[in-house]
Amino acid sequence: MVLMVDLLCLETTDQGFLLKTAEWNEAVAVQLAALNQISLTEGHWEIILFIRHYYLQYKHLPNARVFTKAIAKEFGEEKGNSRYLHKLFPDGPLKYACKLAGLPKPPTCL
Questions:
Q1: Is 98 an active-site residue?
Q2: Can you give the pTM of this predicted structure?
Q3: Assigned domain for 99 exists
Q4: Could you say which of 3, 30, 40, 109 is catalytic?
């Protein structure tokens, strides 16, 4: 599939994940969010930028449990819990945070 952002054609998987992480920028995140009916807030951006940093630092994606614990460590228990993360990303916090961050689909997500 192809995603058009600012006159650029970006290749995606059939589920909408970018094939080339390096092509990501905030405009791409905004476009991906719109395609997934997500209105980005400051809370979304915290999680999107956090998971990008995590991936670039550790060269892998965490599972959902590790993801939630890492967010709790970084931002506190009020944000590092399933209830908060599901409010931001109702269809799957880890999956959609990765998608909007231009990262691969986590291997633990369907």
A1: no
A2: 0.90
A3: yes
A4: 109
